[in-house]
Amino acid sequence: MTAFETGANAWRRLSAWPPRSAGSQARPLYLRAGGRLSFAAPENDDPAWTEYVSDPAKPVPFRARPIRPIGYPDQGLTWPFWLVDDQREASGRPDVLVFLADALDSPLKISGRPVVHLAASTSGSDSDWVVKLIDVYPDEVAGQPEMGGYQLAVAMDIFRGRYREGFEIAKPIPPGQPLAYRFALPNANHVFLKGHRIMVQVQSSWFPLYDRNPQTFVPSIFWAKPDDYRSAVQRVYHMPDQASFIELPLSTPE
């Protein structure tokens, strides 16, 4: 079989997917205090959490505004490309947490499904958790000036907190209680090149790609009333015993 390797922008012939090689391993990339992203685990001197306020009345859009689902005639159709849209607009919002690693000294390749392990709490009784794994380009890219500083989404997905114990039964979230959320992001076959940086964004809305969570538990969100939609304080924890991280499926670059 063959698979396209983003980042390196090359086709690879593989014997299996995900690739099996002696250099393959799953390694946690930790969401640390101060917006840091590191392979080193949190330490006792880290603040316990980072927080933001999620307001359903002002949801995070899934595309840069103005959202153009069918494009303008002079720009062509933009809808098919939303998965590779620049994520810089989201990273500048106060209701999006940003964790950023140092520039890479050498290429880093992932092949497979990154797995999110999020230790988080909400002041509400329901919550969505959107996690994005992003490749941040250097400020200047030779031959591609439009890619300078570009934040390229590698894998993104959303998890609705009411289903943390299974999709069969929805359960309210105990307000203010740190809970463990584990979910996989879509498969990726990507190389973060030397000089690039890895970023993780965490937010609680992705509108209108996904319906707004009222952040108050109701039996069915489709029947939520206006008064059910309330702002909530969201906390992502980064302590040794309550660490948040993404398990990266590392592979050996070609």
Element layout with pairings:
Elements: E1 2-5, E2 10-13, E3 25-32, E4 36-38, E5 49-54, H1 88-91, E6 97-100, E7 108-112, E8 115-122, E9 128-136, E10 151-160, E11 179-184, E12 188-192, E13 197-203, E14 232-237, E15 245-251
Antiparallel strand pairs: 1-2, 3-4, 3-15, 5-14, 6-13, 7-12, 7-15, 8-11, 8-14, 8-15, 9-10, 9-13
Radius of gyration: 19 Å
N-C termini distance: 16 Å
As a percent range, the share of helical residues equals under 10%
Helix-strand makeup class: mainly beta
Query: What portion of residues belong to β-strands?
Result: 35-45%
User: What is the averaged pLDDT score?
Assistant: 92
User: What's the helix-strand series?
Assistant: EEEEEHEEEEEEEEEE
Structural shape: globular
Low-confidence stretches: none
Number of strand segments: 15
> Main β-sheet: number of strands, strand sense, barrel status?
9 strands, antiparallel
Secondary structure tally, helices: 1
